[in-house]
Amino acid sequence: MYEAIRLNNLKWSNMTPQEQESYLNGLKGSYTINDFNRVSSIVEELVDLLLSIGIRVTVNIREWKHEDIPDDNKTQEYLDNIRTLREAFRVLPTTPDVPDNMEHFNFESANNIEQILFDLHLLIDSTKRNKDLSWCLGIAHTGIYVG
């Protein structure tokens, strides 16, 4: 983890080719731009899925680049995106809270973010399927199709 912190404090242009390769390949036990971008992509998917059931949320998606330094403002925005989704839809009683900040971020925090996104996807997708099924059953029951 200390190696990840050391590399995060370096500018991309100041890293050796070996350090850049290590950073790009995902430092074991660290949270890299690959993780930020992967989670941000899932957040975008969930925003679209929520919209498909009539819930509009606004998030600020950032495409993380190698030279980006994950400072407090950027990481807070990242966590706020996840918090916005979590607050926009019901969650399971077992769904963890979004970490307050990245100051003491660890593997448990990362796993909690993954669990939040998984739970939201499961519940939103289930709601969408039920909504679609209800509409289809209503049409079948009444025999009326307006299209």
Question: What would your notes on this structure say?
Answer:
This protein is an all-alpha fold and 147 residues long. The protein folds into 2 domains: 1-30, no CATH class; 31-142, no CATH class. It has helices at 2-9, 17-24, 33-52, 72-88, 107-142. The radius of gyration is 20 Å and the shape is elongated.
Topology summary:
Blueprint lengths: L1 H8 L7 H8 L8 H20 L19 H17 L18 H36 L5
TL;DR?
Helix 3 packs parallel to helix 4 (72-88) and helix 3 (33-52) runs parallel beside helix 5. It contains five helices and no strands.
Q: Which features does this protein show?
A:
mainly alpha, 147 residues, elongated
List the uncertain runs: none
Q: In whole angstroms, how far apart are the ends? A: 57 Å
Give the helix level as a range of percent.
55-70%
**What pattern of helices and strands is seen along the backbone?**
HHHHH
| Major sheet details | none
**How many structural domains in the coordinates?**
2
Per DSSP E runs of 2 or more residues, the count of β-strands stands at 0
Q: What fraction of residues sit in β-strands?
A: under 5%
